[in-house]
Write a structure and sequence with these properties.
Helices cover about 30% and strands about 25% of the residues. It is an alpha+beta fold. The protein has two domains: about 10-200, 2-Layer Sandwich (Fructose-1,6-Bisphosphatase, Chain A, domain 1); about 210-340, 3-Layer(aba) Sandwich (D-Maltodextrin-Binding Protein, domain 2), CATH 3.40.190. The strands form three sheets. An eight-stranded mixed beta sheet has the order 4-3-5-6-7-8-9-10, sandwiched between helices. Strands 12-11-13-15-14 form a five-stranded mixed beta sheet, sandwiched between helices. Helix 2 packs antiparallel against helix 3 and helix 5 (about 225-230) crosses helix 8 (about 325-340). The longest helix is centred in the N-terminal third of the chain and has 21 residues, at about 25-45. The structure holds 2,5-anhydro-1,6-di-O-phosphono-D-mannitol and magnesium ion (MG). Magnesium ion (MG) binds near residues 95, 118, 121 and 283. 2,5-anhydro-1,6-di-O-phosphono-D-mannitol (AHM) binds near residues 121, 214 and 250.
């Protein structure tokens, strides 16, 4: 081990970034620090999931009509709790909660940021020891500072995000976040309990060999998507051979892998679900921001995810996201279908 090697923790990194902007107030660093703290607490419990009683369903049904796992509730409470007791967030929206929670106290009302999160995405995978994650999105408020945050603060286009990120609870635990200055990844060093900069300035390769989609839904997808999936399996595509199919069913793990290695992840609309499954505010917007900042693309098949004007907190959207050249290939199939249907 090289003992002279300088390790930079998440907190040191965000403070370092702040030093480049002498007018910065430190609120965003504070918010990221709070999120990092909640992530560490959730990580401890996720790692014990196979051992303790906390594992399993809590029996209730969330706003999306899905069964809630106990760990979802725990993670939601941790993220909401640290942000509420911190001084950098005016309110939150969570995939687990019906409505926004506005903190509405003297300190929080002065905070300029609001945060949306999916506290534990892919939680149906907890019971089988597959990686899961937390996804978050941070906006600057549009409402008046000094007053409570409003719904408009949360229903902003994704291109207004100030920062977005995710935590992956996997073979190691990582905290990855993006600002307009780029994407950086930090791996949790359990021996010191700190996220340490391990993946500076992440770039999504322009081309990859991985396509990720739920093949079980193949016959429910639109014609263009079906044709693209078939093309992914042919010998003569852009990479010069069939792509590799990888789909865990845990978006954080699937998109994280494709971000690092290059690839495309798709959750298209189906015959039954015209808007797909994934939520714009808690899953698609943050990942679209991260992947675009890393040089990739994200659309709903028609427009950029980041240009969608949300109208509801829990709205869903089809999602196509990943390496630029693979996204362009898909786009060509979608455009051909559009022309044929004119
Ligand atoms: P969740 O928010 O209820 O955990 O669902 C989201 C997850 C994503 O992580 C994953 O990509 C997707 O659902 C998988 O869905 P499917 O099983 O339909 O392919
Ligand atoms: Mg989710």
């Amino acid at each position: 081990m090289n003992i002279n090697r300088r390790i930079q923790t998440l907190d040191e990194f965000t403070i370092q970034q702040m030093r480049d902007f002498p007018n910065a107030t430190g609120e965003l660093s504070g918010l990221l620090r709070d999120l990092g703290l909640a992530a560490k607490r959730v990580n401890v419990e996720v790692n014990k999931a196979g051992l303790v009683d906390i594992l399993g369903d809590d029996g209730s049904i969330n706003i999306q009509g899905e069964e809630v796992k106990k760990m979802d509730v725990y993670a939601n409470n941790q993220f909401m709790g640290v942000l509420q007791h911190g001084i950098s967030c005016a309110g939150i929206g969570s995939e687990e909660l019906d409505d926004i929670v506005v903190f509405d106290d003297l300190v929080s009302n002065k905070s300029k940021y609001v945060c949306l999160f999916d506290p534990l995405d892919g939680s149906s995978n907890i019971d089988v020891n597959v990686s899961i994650g937390t996804i978050f999105s941070i906006f600057k408020r549009v409402s008046e500072l000094g007053k409570p945050a409003t719904k408009e603060d949360f229903l902003q286009q994704g291109n207004k995000q100030v920062a977005a990120g995710y935590v992956i609870y996997g073979s190691s635990t990582m905290f990855v976040y993006a600002t307009r200055r780029g994407v950086n990844g930090f791996t949790l060093d359990p021996s010191i309990g700190e996220f340490c900069l391990s993946h500076p300035d992440i770039k999504c390769p322009d081309m990859g060999k991985i396509y990720s989609v739920n093949h079980g839904n193949f016959f429910q997808y639109g014609e263009a998507v079906k044709k693209y999936i078939i093309a992914c399996q042919k010998k003569d595509n852009t990479s010069g051979g069939p792509y590799t199919q990888r789909y865990i069913g845990s978006m954080v793990a699937d998109v994280h892998r494709n971000l690092i290695k290059g690839g495309i992840f798709m959750y298209p609309s189906t015959v039954d679900k015209h808007k797909g499954k994934l939520r714009l505010l808690y899953e698609c917007n943050p990942f679209a921001f991260i992947v675009e900042k890393a040089g990739g693309l994200a659309t709903n098949g028609k427009i950029r995810i980041l240009d969608i004007q949300p109208t509801e907190l829990h709205e869903r959207t089809p999602l196509f996201i990943g390496s630029k050249i693979m996204m362009d290939e898909l786009d060509a199939y979608i455009n051909t279908e559009l022309k044929e249907n004119k």
